[in-house]
Structure formats: C-alpha cells, structure tokens
Amino acid sequence: MNPKLQYLFPKSFQPIVWVLLLVSCVFNLLSVKHFTHGPILDDSWYSYAGDDYPSELPIRLDAVKMDFEDVSGDSWYSQTGFDAWLQWHALDHFPRAHGFVELGRDRRQFGISMFHQIHCLSMIRESLINGINDHAAHCLNFMRQAVLCNADTTLEAITETTHTCKDWTQVYDFIAENQNNWPKKASKSQAHNDTEADPHAGHDLR
After folding, report:
1. Is 38 left (phi over 0), alpha (psi -120 to 50) or beta?
2. Whether the predicted pLDDT of 198 surpasses 70
3. Contacts of 70 (CB under 8 A, 6+ apart)
4. Which tens digit of pLDDT belongs to each residue from 7-65?
5. Can you list the alpha helix ranges (DSSP code H) found in 11-133?
6. Element containing residue 68 per DSSP (H, E)
7. Strands 63-68 and 161-166, bridge-based pairing
8. pTM of the full predicted structure?
9. Which DSSP string corresponds to 90-118?
10. Cα(17)–Cα(23) distance, rounded to whole angstroms?
11. Which letter does DSSP use for residue 53 in this model?
12. How far apart are CA 41 and CA 33, in angstroms?
C-alpha cells in the first residue's frame, strides 16, 4: 500500500478501506451504465396508477440544431390551402392516435404535451380561417404557457437563427413504436373512449 495511506490508515483498517474502494468503483460503474444505456429510461418502479407516474415521457432526448426560417405565406406550413392542410395534419399523424401513448402494466393512456401544442397550433390556424371559438381561445392561452415554460433564450441577430433543441424525431419514434404495440383489436366501448380522449376527434384541420 502507498506509504501515505499506511500512515493515514492503520493496518487494522486497511481491509475496510479496500472494501469501500471496491464498493465505490462498482457503484460508479453501475451509475455510468444506467445513465448511458440507450435513450429509453427505466420507469419500472412506477405503477402508473393514480399519481404514481413520471412527469415526462421516459426517454432521454439528444440535443439537435434547428434553423428557424422566415417563411412566406405560400411556403411550408402556411395558413391556407390543401398543401398546408396536409403538412399540418402530418405533424401529428400516428398509427393509432394523435400523440398518445400507453404506459405501465395496465396500459394507462397519456397525451404528450408536444402534440397537444401542435394540435393547438392547428386549431388556431383553423380559427383564422373559420372564425374564433372557445377551443382556439384555450389553445392560444395554452401556447402562451408553453412558450413561457420552455423559455428559449436563443439570441436572434439575423433572419435565420440556429436554436439548440431536443431531438423531436426521437419522440415521434417512441410514440409510433408504443402505438404499434397497442392491442390490435378494441371493443366498441374502448374505441368510443379513445375518441373521447383524443382532442383531435371531429375537428377539421383545413
């Protein structure tokens, strides 16, 4: 043993010191494995019953760059037109439902705020075409809160500004895979419940 360690720790304590060092190394290795093992987080300790569920989707998102563009009225994601309807509608198109997942042993259904926000943008766009309504008013206030919550502090000096974002494609992949694992056949009552849970049902996203 290092002479300095021999001075600090008498021989009677040396086995304890080695055990503690070994335990520390094992703990550090397990911690590194836990935090670097893929994007999916371990949520097995949640029952997903009542209030016992995580505050966010159990996935670790990478950081990506996005150039915010100053677009004209006839470009992508414009206000009116059939192409605009297709583009906005495609933002939350999934195999089974609009941005919903089933989590936990009992397959509890949750909405994802990202797609609630996309839905609200579509509803605000529709209200600009067809007139204001209570749903659009809710969505306008919801988007105000979402902007404040995210507090993007990117400095904007030119028209096209690069922002650092969470990788939204990972969210799309997670939801698509989750929905592909939903039970293939649902009863009429379940289908009715799914329609009630989905805020998009019955809305024209023109």
Report:
1. left
2. no
3. 159, 160
4. 555 566 556 655 566 656 545 554 444 444 458 899 999 999 999 999 999 999 999 99
5. 14-36, 82-90, 113-130
6. strand 63-68
7. antiparallel
8. 0.70
9. HTT--SSSSSEEEETTTTEEEE-HHHHHH
10. 10
11. S
12. 12
